[in-house]
Amino acid sequence: MSQLKGACIIGQSGGPSAVINASAYGAIKTALENEDITQVLGALHGIKGVLNDDLIDMGKEDPAELAHMKYTPSSALGSCRYKLADPDVDDTDYKRILEIFKKYNVRYFFYNGGNDSMDTCNKISKFMLKNGYECRVMGIPKTIDNDLYGTDHCPGFASAAKYIATSVMEVYRDSTVYDNGQITVVECMGRHAGWLTAAAALANYAGDGADMIYLPERDFDLDAFTEKVKAVYAQKKKCLAVVSEGIHDKDGKFISEYGNANAAKDAFGHTQLGGLASFLANHLKAATGAKVRGIELSLLQRCASHAASQTDIDESFAAGKAAVDNAVAGITDKMVGFERSCDKDGKYVCNIKLFDLTDVANTEKKVPLEWITPDGDGLTKDFIDYALPLIQGETQQTKENGLPRFVHLAKVKAEPIA
Amino acid sequence: MSQLKGACIIGQSGGPSAVINASAYGAIKTALENEDITQVLGALHGIKGVLNDDLIDMGKEDPAELAHMKYTPSSALGSCRYKLADPDVDDTDYKRILEIFKKYNVRYFFYNGGNDSMDTCNKISKFMLKNGYECRVMGIPKTIDNDLYGTDHCPGFASAAKYIATSVMEVYRDSTVYDNGQITVVECMGRHAGWLTAAAALANYAGDGADMIYLPERDFDLDAFTEKVKAVYAQKKKCLAVVSEGIHDKDGKFISEYGNANAAKDAFGHTQLGGLASFLANHLKAATGAKVRGIELSLLQRCASHAASQTDIDESFAAGKAAVDNAVAGITDKMVGFERSCDKDGKYVCNIKLFDLTDVANTEKKVPLEWITPDGDGLTKDFIDYALPLIQGETQQTKENGLPRFVHLAKVKAEPIA
């Protein structure tokens, strides 16, 4: 394995999370301390920052300030949802990326994101190889959706899960306080994978949970749902249902579209969902006459750093660090992931494991069907056993004046080193 | 001042908060330790629990379990929104309350709620006096709305404010992460008083806040708002506005009603608002063509015990304790409130102060107009100085398995003591 000296670029992409900056900080801090890495560059707004030569010099940041990155939500370097073309069809972007890599002598590229970001990593790596430019490329996973192939779980999931479980516990207490009854529908993110919505089952485990939980892994029948709500409400004068934004009927039609025939699509052709909680609340109000409240957890569930899991934060940092350590050691074309094991006392242990980018890109990992209860509206103990270790530990986020202390980067424009 | 021996009833009413149970626990614990109070009764679902003889014996609860009440959101005894009739028109309920008081020898009545609850306290006290039944009545305030007369602030406000400020900081980071722009509208509770929405200004103070904040204390002009959003978005490619559910135009019409002509009313004749964030998001999307997201903080803002202010928790407990201590000392017909002072170092100090129930009932305290910036879309430093001391301190809530440990009451039905 040859030693490779040069600059590195770190970029962030896709929807942010409460801990994606912990990963970026893990990579940045490790890179700044490594002698083979001559300059640590931050790409503003992901790959677009590379294309636009919008790079900042992370070495010019105050180290004490930079340390707050570990506990700051969202992507401190900015994000993008830019999909690179197929290089066989249009290689304009790739040529530009190579130009920038040459300009700064970039020999390491670390990209911090979800499925689409791993695809971006993979394409860039293949192009560099084809063009004889030596560059090691590593993907650092991030996605609250927890749907990346191979890895036991994804950085960001646990913090969102902890927030969702905590919020469902609190909403359960609040929404059942009156004797004249209430039906409540809570909507969680998750287009195709129900991991986040499943996190509501942790609230049940803690004793204050939902009556029903619906994931997109199973078809959703609005009539059956309505009857179930009616039955629960008739018996208990209250009903709390948690639904994934991506629940759909047996024909694959999103339930959210029942109330909105013209849902917009994003840059990747994904249908832009929303308003499901509101649709179901109105539907149930008409069907039952009860007081109904729809609550959409919206962005709150993915940026709630104040309620993040310290386990998640530490693992996210470790993923970023491992990407740099492994790349410097000669590894390329891998995504850093996690493998679960346990110590001699049976306690959860998380080990770093590398996955081929080719395998990871654009593959979605869903909640195993056998973890969903037979009637399709709950989770088995398997899910609890899986998720509970991940949400342990309260964030060590610094507070100032009773509020979170987030990082404020100086963002000094990078100059190539002579 | 005569000694008065007998049972006490503690009830909770109105919309719950993250700390109303801290007040109830302050009263219950103090009452259980007091020798003049022979039995401590909890009324299930507020005054309806008294009317229905649905009382539990708080002395039968496990003290260690009961202690979790201090950190459990919502009303552990259950709440109601039941409005007592004017006793001069219909005294049926009052006669029934007197009957129950006599049955259990109730000599102390503590009621934990907002404006309407103080009105209930006041009416019951006057009826007992008129009928020659000696009973001391104390109101223990609670309202995230912070709109009770006299008191410097209300238990519950600070925890909701801390959650709102924190969430706005996080949403600001998340919603401004893409370079292709986003407009975000966050909706906070508050029909007539803008205290909660004003809490978003604390996020600005911390460096990650809203571009505009609109309270119901000022008329809202949808066209002017739209132009302002357009101007901010044109300049920054992002815009975050925080609005109160109760914003209304110069004719007093709620903006939320612009999208919903047939808003429902609750038992008190209050218009049931909702959907404002969604309405404004759709409106701005059409007006700007930008990506727009509406976020309603909904119940989350009033039950987020995991993010409660320890200052608020401690003050809420102190309010409950003061109600019992003062009643036993001979005081009646008062609401416990707070008066602000400072120590010799200029540090915030909160003192207990009693207010006449007659003055408090049904009077609303709004945000002073001079604390709103001249253009009506921000708060002055006066508000920050007012609110900042209240949100200090992180909750000492016990966690179990990474999730909050809430109280689970045994709820043993009370029997009159011979």
Please provide a brief summary of the model.
Chain A has 418 residues and is of the alpha/beta class.
Instruction: Indicate the structural class of chain A.
Output: alpha/beta
Examine the coordinates and then state which fold CATH places here, giving the name of the CATH topology of the largest domain in chain A.
Rossmann fold
**In total, how many domains does the architecture of chain A comprise?**
2
Mean pLDDT of chain A: 94
Shape of chain A: elongated
Describe, in plain words, how this protein is organized in 3D.
Two copies of one chain form a homodimer. Chain A has 418 residues and is of the alpha/beta class. Chain A has two domains: 6-155 and 307-362 and 395-404, Rossmann fold; 159-305, Rossmann fold (3-Layer(aba) Sandwich). Chain A contains 14 helices and 13 strands. Chain A has helices at 20-32, 47-51, 63-66, 92-104, 115-130, 157-175, 195-198, 200-205, 222-236, 276-288, 300-303, 310-328, 357-360, 381-387, and strands spanning 6-12, 37-43, 55-57, 106-113, 136-141, 182-188, 212-214, 238-244, 292-296, 334-342, 348-356, 399-400, 403-404. In chain A, the strands form three sheets. A seven-stranded mixed β-sheet of chain A has the order 3-2-1-4-5-10-11, with helices on both faces. The two termini of chain A are 26 Å apart. Residues 261-268 and 270-274 of chain A have low confidence and may be disordered. At the A-B interface, helix 6, helix 8, strand 9, helix 11 and strand 12 of A face helix 6, helix 8, strand 9, helix 11 and strand 12 of B.
